[in-house]
Amino acid sequence: MISASYPNSYPRRISSRRPSSWTAGRLGIGFLNLLASIQFVWFYVNRVPSCMRLLPYEQGRERTPFQYRLLLMLPLRWAHASPWLNSIAASLTAQRGWFHAGVRPEGILEAAIDLTCIAVAGLAARKLYRASSRTGLLTPLIYPLVLVMANGAYSLLTMHLLRFVYDLPSLAFFSVGLCLIYFRTHPLWFMALFAVATLNRETTLLLLLCFAIAQCKRGPAWDWQQIYSPGSLAVLLPLSGYWIGWHLWVVRHFAANPVVPFPGVWLNIGLLLLPIAWPQMIGAFAYLWPVVFAGRRRILDPVLRAWLWVVPVWIAFMFRFGIILEIRIFAELIPYIAVLAVLVFEENLLKKLESKTPAPAAEWAEAGGSA
Fold first, then answer.
1. What is the phi/psi pair of residue 184, to 5°?
2. Element (H or E) spanning 9, and its range?
3. Beta-carbon neighbour count of residue 25 at 10 Å?
4. Residues 16-40: pLDDT tens digits?
5. What is the largest CA-CA distance in the chain?
6. pLDDT band for position 2 (50/70/90)?
7. N or C: which end of the chain has fewer CB within 10 A?
């Protein structure tokens, strides 16, 4: 784990003996989070229309660039032909009050995958927060905030309300990738995740930037020369080569597929100048990104704070290759931004408590850290 370079003025008090009410509270919060996750995925799969034509996608004939994201092609093909899933889909489709658009066997598999992915993203964000917070005081807020941000990015849209089968898996892959980098697990774990996640979506390229930044913080001071160290290059060079090779292969392999026309940068410039588009565009990350950037000095963890430099790179990347009104294209950063927003709020709260009642503040912080 990356050691923090700031004083921990609120040492955590962790007892091996947990009161039964504490355990019941954790189970209750976990159950509520599960219900909220199910409701989100239920609405997302059942009510948000798919932009992709799943049958051509399963056969490798979907429009590009959608067909380039191949990871779920074979699982969805299996689901389509599964008698078991077809039988369940037929039974659920009969319940039109609950399943307005009907149920397809691929939809059942997609819902199971999406539920797993949103849970992974929320738990990864929780793990990052607990490792980077001085107190862990606001741990119960992390998972619900990830859900709120995911709802805003994938469901609560007035324009371009579309579903893509690879979106929530990409969210989960990116959040796990950040954890593997942050906690400095063995590089092979990160390389394995990168190899699989790249088959799902090409935004994994920006994980390499996060990795490079984290490699430069191994002591009290930043050492940017670490990017060129053998350990860093042993990860960055093969993964960069793999990403480039994979991208060239899919572009060539699916060259005969229909292509989705992209209007280019000028459309995004026009959207920036269109006031009616502002509520949706600014609504990325539940409108909390201005809070994060304005309060970035409150983020005491140096690596998490430095990763903010990835955000403008991401925006530039999407400005060229995406449509910025589709705020789902930034959603892989949801767990990370959720953690930063809570860290900023926590530091502001602790500063106020310290200035007014130092002793109770410390007690509350200790109690929060053990929750």
1. 50, 50
2. none
3. 13
4. 455 666 688 889 999 999 999 999 9
5. 69
6. very low
7. N
